[in-house]
């Protein structure tokens, strides 16, 4: 991967920009905001996608595949995502020409331009939490600008340009770029050590969050329950810290959570109480909602009105998203790619399946994470799913590591009868269909391209007798 140099100067004026990796949900959203500003946009990605087609329909010039010829002659900046390779021909040509090459966080920083910024960070839950904050502000009558890491289902987009002074973004801690922003309100969902290939150590990872939070000009909203967040909170010097969660000491406390049917719960704050009900499943989303409510409290909203606004959230794409049902087997997709996220996704599924079983279709993400956490993945999948089908590793930006395959995960199961490793996707789809029974839930898990197997699974289910 390319490590961003966040010290590089950002051009004062940009009239034309080229996006390498424009098909990603975050990058396509960012490109859309450039179009909103009247900036000419071009871009490329390795494969076609709905996001590519949507941004092209808005006026961007897009290319499938990365080639030097894709780079226009008259651009002011190139924007890249850390997922591209250093040998990318468009990236290399831009550097050769002396065109400013900006990490996507730098481009977003340029767009924000000093407005009141809510930055949402954390190893898990930040896309959902960002969507909740954005939805709530809009439901309360505000019109924020926003950039999320996933599509907000009710809006059909991952980003939007609003007329208000408030900007809400999903801030990325994976490469340290969340430290670039001039954040007003920092929301930290959790501090579960990840991306240590960038940070180097658990201590450095925690220190990054401390710096991110202490730099917030107005307030810090942080989990009361997560052990890592507790460590960060203890190290903060900020004058206004609002904790949220299940702990009795939480400033915004969640209690009385019920998960049968819609998630219902009570939020307590400053001697007041309000009950809420969500359209998305899972006890973890009641806690995410409390974090979103806490953000609105720091922005001046009252508890009752803040919770009513958060209730309007209808989910984000690739977060427990139903794709279809065949012979009474429902097929869902979820972005979960860390053991904690997988546990939360499967626990949420468990609350809505009735008498059915959960069949997890897991695609390990990156060789480094798989090598470091294959035992944790196996433990979570074995304890939360009734049966697991493991695919091979989605390498993303990483080169293959000898011996690191999906078989590492399947081989770590205590009960070999509960797991099946299949590298070939069609074989995996056929096998999944063969073990599924009416009333079961199949759920794909991973932040790579595992969702692309869903049509094959649905077809296999339809032909299975």
TrEMBL record:
GO MF entry, a single one: UDP-N-acetylmuramate-L-alanine ligase activity
Pathway it works in: Cell wall biogenesis; peptidoglycan biosynthesis
Subcellular location: Cytoplasm
Domain Mur ligase N-terminal catalytic, first and last residues per copy: 18-113
A Pfam family assignment: Mur_ligase
Entry's EC annotation: 6.3.2.8
Main location: cytoplasm
Role: Cell wall formation.
Mur ligase C-terminal domain: residues covered: 318-448
Annotated source species: Microbacterium dauci
Gene assigned in the entry: murC
Limits of the Mur ligase central domain: 120-295
Family statement: Belongs to the MurCDEF family.
Chemical reaction(s) catalysed: UDP-N-acetyl-alpha-D-muramate + L-alanine + ATP = UDP-N-acetyl-alpha-D-muramoyl-L-alanine + ADP + phosphate + H(+)
NCBIfam families for this protein: murC
Protein name stated in the entry: UDP-N-acetylmuramate--L-alanine ligase
Top class in the EC scheme: ligase
Keyword Chloroplast in annotation: no
